Amino acid sequence: MSLITWQEFENVDVRVGTITLVEDFPEARKPAYKITVDFGEELGTKRTSAQITVHYTKEELLGRQILGVVNFPPKQIGPITSEFLLTGLYREDGSVILAVPDKAMPNGAKLG
């Protein structure tokens, strides 16, 4: 593991957002959802895809708050453009558990 400076950490823009739409992503190579998140007035709505189908249904995700890295450049993933990175933790089997705030926060709140 390499050490980073506080300045480098501050360059990562992690924000709270609320999932407003979850769609199947049949074109994905591995099972995934297309996810739309409201990051508040400053950032607006952003989309991404996420391989989180093992532990979450579309219905469970809708309305849930998540943490997302919002200052990556857009990345084309099949037919959609990923506009942020949904954060999560990998289990030994490779499945993902979401990293989420444990209390309700305003959309757009910044991790710091």
UniProtKB/TrEMBL annotation:
Superkingdom, taxonomy of origin: Bacteria
Q: Which Pfam families match?
A: tRNA_bind
- In this protein, which residues make up the domain named TRNA-binding? 8-112
GO MF, one term, reads: tRNA binding
Task: Name the Gene3D superfamilies for this protein.
Answer: Nucleic acid-binding proteins (2.40.50.140)
Question: What InterPro entries does UniProt report for this protein, alphabetically?
Answer: CsaA (IPR008231), NA-bd_OB-fold (IPR012340), tRNA-bd_dom (IPR002547), Tyrosine-tRNA_ligase_regulator (IPR051270)
Q: Which UniProt keywords apply?
A: RNA-binding, tRNA-binding
Entry-linked NCBIfam families = chap_CsaA (TIGR02222), PRK10089.1-2 (NF007493), PRK10089.1-3 (NF007494), PRK10089.1-4 (NF007495)
Q: What is this protein called?
A: CsaA protein
Species of provenance: Rhodopirellula baltica (strain DSM 10527 / NCIMB 13988 / SH1)
